[in-house]
Design goal:
With 228 residues, the chain is mainly alpha-helical. The chain has one domain. The chain has helices at 3-32, 40-64, 68-87, 94-102, 120-130, 133-145, 149-155, 178-208, and strands at 38-39, 156-159, 165-167, 218-220. Helix 3 crosses helix 5 (120-130) and helix 3 runs parallel beside helix 8 (178-208).
Length: 228
């Protein structure tokens, strides 16, 4: 790995780690919004923030350890986190939506305001209309979640002109090009940035008091829910 590429990867990881401070700041801001009143949607958003913070830490640790084959599935999980956060924007009755999810109902079995079941493919298509770049990220990252050709290619380190093959196994993916780490880190940062925009959107909605029309119920007048 070239020194210049190593520096780029280090900088990318540092920027991603900084996201956790922003997640924490927004979580605190959310608990204070609307005079500290808490809604079921707050619990839903807080859960996605908590998951995201853990995924940020895991992704960065894996990239630093050059464990590409596990880093990419973590990236895919962050994308899943975004899709499911976005699902709350597709329904009219947020309160009912969150209650269903808290009760264990899979989001894929719930319907949006137009009567469409929010299956993974539907959530992907819906969000990719707004952020087309996510389509390619989704398709490529899925290849690392399920056993596929990507795992074969990641095992082959070198193919000689005489058809001799050098293979590599181990939890240190030294045979993966630097560009793959850089691209994965860039994708993770993009996904997280979109997540932050939705979280900020919820805070603005909550602070503006436009909640009854979205069916969101107050559950507490204290801002102590969630240890941020």
């Amino acid at each position: 790995m070239e020194k210049e590429d190593s520096i780029k990867i280090e900088e990318a990881v540092l920027n991603i780690r900084k996201l956790n401070a922003e997640y924490g700041s927004l979580a605190l801001e959310m608990t204070k919004a609307c005079n500290g009143n808490m809604y079921l949607m707050d619990l839903y958003v807080m859960a996605t923030i908590n998951r995201s913070e853990n995924l940020v830490s895991a992704f960065c640790d894996l990239v630093e350890k050059k464990n590409f084959l596990v880093a990419v599935p973590v990236l895919r999980m962050q994308l899943d986190n975004l899709f499911r956060l976005r699902a709350a924007w597709l329904v009219d009755d947020i309160n009912n939506f969150v209650m269903e999810v808290l009760g264990g109902t899979a989001i894929s079995k719930l319907k949006d305001r137009n009567g469409n079941k929010m299956a993974d493919w539907y959530l992907v298509d819906s969000l990719c209309k707004e952020y087309p770049v996510l389509k390619n990220i989704y398709e490529k990252s899925c290849g690392y979640v399920h056993f596929s050709d990507q795992h074969f290619f990641s095992t082959v380190k070198n193919m000689g002109p005489d058809a001799k093959m050098e293979m590599y196994i181990g939890n240190y993916s030294d045979n993966i090009p630097s560009k793959s780490y850089i691209d994965a880190s860039s994708a993770f940062f993009q996904i997280s940035g979109i997540m932050l925009s939705y979280i900020k959107g919820w805070i603005i909605t909550k602070e503006g008091g436009a909640l009854k029309s979205r069916g969101s119920s107050q559950i507490s007048n204290s801002n102590s829910i969630g240890n941020v």
